[in-house]
Predict the 3D structure of the following.
Amino acid sequence: MTYAQVILPLPLQGGFTYEVPPEAERQLRIGARVIVPFGRRKFYTGIVDSVSDRKPEGYELKAIAAVLDSGSPIIKRPQIQLWNWIADYYLATVGEVMKAALPAGLKVESETYVEPVPDFEEDPKARLSEREVIVLQTLDHAAKRLTVADIEKLTGFTGVNALIGRMIDKKAVAVSEKLVERYAPRRETYVRMAFGHGDTEALHRAFDAVASARRQEAALLALTDMSGIMRGEPSEVAVKALCERADINLPILKALQQKGIVEIYRKEIGRFRYNGLVTASLPTLSDPQREALNAIHASWRDKNVTLLRGVTSSGKTELYIHLIDFVLRQRRQVLYLVPEIALTTQLTERLQRVFGDKVVIYHSKFTDNERVDIWKRLLCSDEPCVVIGARSSVLLPFGPLGLVIVDEEHETSYKQQDPAPRYNARDTAMVLARMHGAKTLLGSATPSVETYYKATTGRFGLVELTERYGAAVLPEVNVVDMKRARLRGEVKGPLSADASRTVADATANGGQAIVFINRRGFAPVAECSSCGYSPKCEHCDVTLTYHKRIDRLVCHYCGSQYPLPTVCPACKEPAIEVLGFGTERVEDEVGAAFGGATTLRMDLDTTRSKDSYQQIINDFSGRKADILIGTQMVTKGLDFAGVSAVVILSADALLNVPDFRASERAFNMMEQVAGRAGRRGTPGHVIIQSYQPAHPVLPYVASHDYLGFYSYEIEERRKFLYPPFTRIIYIYIKHRDPREVDSIAVAYTHALRQLFGNRVYGPEEPHVGRIQQLYIRKIMLKIETEASMTKVRTILRDLYERMHSVPGSPIRSAQIYYDVDPM
Ligand SMILES: Nc1ncnc2c1ncn2[C@@H]1O[C@H](COP(=O)(O)OP(=O)(O)OP(=O)(O)O)[C@@H](O)[C@H]1O
Ligand SMILES: [Zn+2]
């Protein structure tokens, strides 16, 4: 007998062992999908992790119900290795990693099917009701199994579930789980000659047979040419293309098929073949760029990871293109990670012009079928290609990977917050690269403090580009003291007089401007001007943001929506006002302030559909708007030739976050958004509005002084023992009950202190103390960098097991999870 360890998409530790039925033994491969029973009536798609012939002791085994991939497995062995690494490092389960990695289309889901019991005899003591009889007749009539939904549709009954339940008890029907595969491959219809290549005689006969039918003849002529059948260079012909070319329709082809001249067939095709032309060659590098490129190659001789620190618009992307070309020529693959889907849009075009259909894009806005297509393309062939993608593309089934590029490596969006696994795609990508013997290039104008530390202390290679490409210089930055500006009456709406002038100058000279505000919606606060009451979310401890377009208050944590009250619920005065600025309101006000100017807005609300990024970016690149208003989506990596002015509306909202990374994040964000200005010769101008102009971070932004900022920040980190001088793990505790959450947090902290001593901080209530009805507490663990993380993780896991196994322990009703290397 053989036994298989199977990974299931569940947040449970440990593997699950199943018996392999003898008939499946020969086809079973590691990495193949199997359907297995779990619990009483559930089925899951699992992945075979390993097989052995030793029967595990102690419990009864179930058997694998079906093997889905009997040919080639759906994931590759190194992927399972990577999944295990992620689960281990980020204190998650392999099942959670599997869930994040596999597109839903590769998971099979069970749906309940109902069928009549064949020789059912009505029990006189338990007669069927009238409705039950109708259901039974419907099933008989359909003569096949029906889903509950089908039955509801056919009978017009609602709430059929309970009815079916009673019918099961009466043994009139039985239910079974039907497994449905959700992936639908895309097929296209093709047409070919019914005879062999070069068969001139058959071709003549065919033309004779259509001599009196003009349109059939036209079709045949076009097919002869397009299929290359007489030229000895055969190619497949899509029906659609043929119909267009010969100006005919499908019935004409059907007629030809009936005469035995052509064959029409369907074929599965990938969704992502780039059909455009490869028009560009490799960019010619400037001298500093060429030196940097050589330095990168040189550093890879003895380092696996190299950091390229290049100021904004220094041409990092052009260097990446050269490196990609180098690796593709070795017939190896490249992973190019970007932090934001908006960036894939501009990059894809830039890369496709050089690498054509070797460019593969992958991100969460794709439909599931599209994601499965890409997965299969990588799975089935080791052809050289470059995958551009956001976070989750690090989990794809790569073949011979030669290079990983992590652009804007400092970005916090590389870290997944919720749900588990809370992994950092940048760090995971470096592990992936090492598994494949590939090199990694981290790129940024503002490297994260940790990365720059590693690069200057020899762990990573370091290459720097300090000048912008071409004639462009870094923009001039001015900080506006908003308190003073207000006193002088120089603030109108969201803009100071300086900001207005800067935007007006830019747009008057045919240039464009970007206005950055890191809040979406119309106004972040609604408040009663008479009593000060402010509506909050019923499920979360946050104030609600007013969205004007939908005229509702929205919770940005759980998405709940509420009407804007006309009278104050507290004091009954009709005095509710909305205060402050979000992107929506800024767009309104800026539009009004610059009468003739057109605006575009890019934030979560305007980019919900798949192509919306593309649309906004294309429109702004194509100068269809003068001013782009946006959240952090507009801050990084985008390359707009026309932008000469940038306004950062509320630097304070960035600077005042209670977090050890606040300064770093604020510096990065401001430096990046400033970097969008003046990228093509015309000098750029940046305005930063702040109520605390003396904040120590601002002068570094004003002088584009990354190194100065780094020296300041690294000392803070050293003094207060933060990364890179320690490693941090947050432990979160969530519970429905506010008292319970505190007592669990205190007990947990106490237990942690006995194990880790003064490395434990807290518990504390985080910035937002309740989300979706759950109260939250946070404990911080600071571990010396030299300490063994394996040991730390083992202790944490053991502690959880120990606390959790106490019968009646309140911990059993709490959610406890970890955030390793939090952002
Ligand atoms: N060698 C070159 N030849 C032609 N154009 C170049 C070259 N180097 C850079 N450029 C152009 O300069 C602009 C800025 O370059 P790029 O976008 O690569 O900068 P970057 O360093 O990636 O900037 P950021 O950090 O802001 O994303 C682009 O439009 C790019 O096409
Ligand atoms: Zn909420």
